[in-house]
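New to this. Explain the following:
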Amino acid sequence: MSLRSDTADTLYEILAGKRVSRARLERACDWFEQLDTPLDRRSFLAYTQVLQRELDSASPLAGLVPKWRHARRGKDRFDEDSAAAFLQDYTAHLDPNLLFRAPITAGYARWERALLQQGFAFASQSEQAWSLLYCDRGGARLRAAGRDLPLVPGQVLLVAPGAPCSLQPLPDCDEWAYYWAVFHPDSRWRNWLIWPHFATRISHLSLPEDVQPAVSATFLELEHCLQSARPMATELSHNLMEQLILRCRASLPSEFEPHRDPRIERARAFVEEHFDEAFTLEDVAGAASMSVSRLASLFRQQCGLSVLGYRDELRMVQAAQLLRNSSMSIAAVGAAAGYPDPAYFSRTFSRHVGVSPREYQQQG
């Protein structure tokens, strides 16, 4: 049996709710590695394991079993032509958000420069799942909130749900490889996830060299634990995820202050409630019980951007969610996010996220 046919049978059976052996999964990973995607075999293996745990009926993949059942009727496997057609259908309906539904998922990814040059826009569609990325080698350029962040070895990126951003190549880097974990935070972890701000819902830090080997080793152990069937694997993976968060939290710069002035928290709450409406700095200052000048100075100092800059970033998050999760027109999305002028919305979104609203919508 060819690798293609065997892979089609394996993936079909997973979607049909059957258990398949590790050896067959590894052969399917061999096939997947031949595709032009940023996920390596370990990441694809994590994806198939999520599918084996639970396949939501709303997933684009869920409809493939009844659609392709006729091709296997009366036999146990696909023929070569049917296998090729099924795999094409399968890859067209891959649903990365499945990874966000598991409490913890981890893996390793590698992008070649040619793939990065195509551009890639992303944002978790889950309302709960956070992402932790640790650059292992090479580099890429993250675009968010109208700013660029080089992602190079030793850099850790923490992305909260829904943060819109895009990736492009970094000059002189032919690849970008990184460990990643997607997780639903334990309530105890929330205060440990307050890191230096880069953009709304995106934080980052550079790990000291003496901490990096331990972080890499913990990522690997977490991945192996998630793939194992040993006793207490769920509890161990939770513990390893907590270790990763704590190692990073302990590496924050000594000058970083995670606590904000209560008045600034009131100002942030006002902006978050009214971001899609027209308001003035005087309105925000009144809600925070402080002068406009003091608000402007302290807000930038503690939040890393201006009041109106924070409002615009919240609007971009809202627009990104609507572009990916609704059938609204781009003009309607802009209006819902607070930009009645479609041309101005498109320019602002492109500047913040690095791709146009239409490109972002199409890459979803």
Summary: The longest strand covers residues 104-112. The chain has a mean pLDDT of 86. The chain is about 50% helix and 15% strand.
